[in-house]
Amino acid sequence: MHEVWVSAELEGDAGVADIVEIAAARRIPLLHVARARLEREARSEAPQGVLAHAAEIPEADLADLIGADRPGRARSPFLVAVDGVTDPGNLGAIIRTCDAAGVTGVLLPRHRAVHVTPTVAKSAAGAVEYVPMALVPGLPAALRQLTERGIWIVGLDDGADRGLYDMGSLATEPICLVLGAEGAGLSRLVRERCDSIVGIPMAGHVSSLNVSAAAAVSLYEVARLRL
Fold first, then answer.
1. Between 42 and 25, where is the model more confident?
2. What range defines the domain where residue 41 resides?
3. 206 and 175 in one domain?
4. Which residues of 4-15 are buried (b: 16+ CB within 10 A; e: fewer)?
């Protein structure tokens, strides 16, 4: 971390005392700046008066994520691929759930999808620092590489051929869960690369969940089966 900004109106406020103390202990410069300046720099909705400038998040290598089951690795691949998600709040929430559920890596398309932005980082509540993320030129081609390495590709979509709770032993294998875009779902080429399509049972009157809510349900079901 390079520098911490705190809104001038919060100088001496007990609510930021821990942040000030940690910055001092780690010898990180801390500046009190005008709130308007901080909000312009934050580039996110409803900043809360504290901003940290840090190094860019390193991009993970797809080969490393695929090879998570190599000798000496503690866990076999439990990956998530995001197909065309463009809402930064949703992506941040997905990454936060990935960290909590033990996902070993996330695949993000380089084009027609949101990447890590200030809003994504805020929604992820720090999880962007811990979940390896690889930018891939094309998601269908990346999924083919996973298949060639023995990783099962499971798409989450309304038009499913089986239910989420019917995955059984498939969830205990090296797996990549693919989440579709808000509204549109999985793209045609991505769907064709999936070994199986699963859906979340819906008992109410609406037909689907928000993609971040669907991610939470599905990832924890996979995590439960992998325990």
1. 25
2. 3-53
3. yes
4. bbbbeebeeeee
